[in-house]
Specification:
Blueprint (H helix, E strand, L loop, with lengths): L8 E5 L1 H18 L5 E7 L3 H10 L5 E11 L2 E10 L9 E9 L3 H11 L5 E9 L12 E5 L5 E2 L15 E4 L7
Bound molecules: inosinic acid (IMP).
The site of inosinic acid has 18 residues, from strand 3, strand 5, helix 3 and strand 8.
Length: 181
Amino acid sequence: MSTIESPRVSVLLSADAIAARVAALGAQLSEDYRGRDVVLVCILKGSLVFFADLLRAVTIPTRCDYLAVESYEGTSSSGEVRFTADLRGAIEGRDVLLVEDIVDTGLTMAYLLEALSARKPSSIEVVTLLDKPSRRRTPVSLRYVGFEIPDAFVVGYGLDYEQYFRNLPFVGVLEEVPSLG
Ligand code: IMP
């Protein structure tokens, strides 16, 4: 039986594989955004681990901000997105990079891109650790992608199931829904 204490999870992306990819993304961003006024936006809570590592892999001056959205119940998308915390700073005239854990249906990112573009940033792009293109319900442009993954529910490295498993150092496939009781 799969439980919260001992879930049935198989490793999809090891901690080492993630670290190597995050270092490469950080180097790429540092190159692409050199000399620009960039704000890295952490999309809570899922991207907090990726964000913390990516931030330290970026070597150019950068500012940080965060926002929180809710879009998901359990393992299936509710299709509804709402802001539960907004950015602290203005983004007008700035180069904004939205840092996301995973783009699945694309509904969250499409909503965010539309809402934040209205604030007139000079540019807005997405960096996502994971992309599940087979699940897309709306097209979104993803400038930087860590890994494309198949259609499976994954946890770890910030991603949760019912708020658990964010602390796993790797990304794993939840093979059986764990009992919470
Ligand atoms: P989307 O709106 O369907 O693209 O979903 C985006 C959000 O759903 C992500 O930021 C995650 O919080 C959550 N999500 C999507 N797929 C997974 C998964 O496999 N594991 C954990 N969370 C997921």
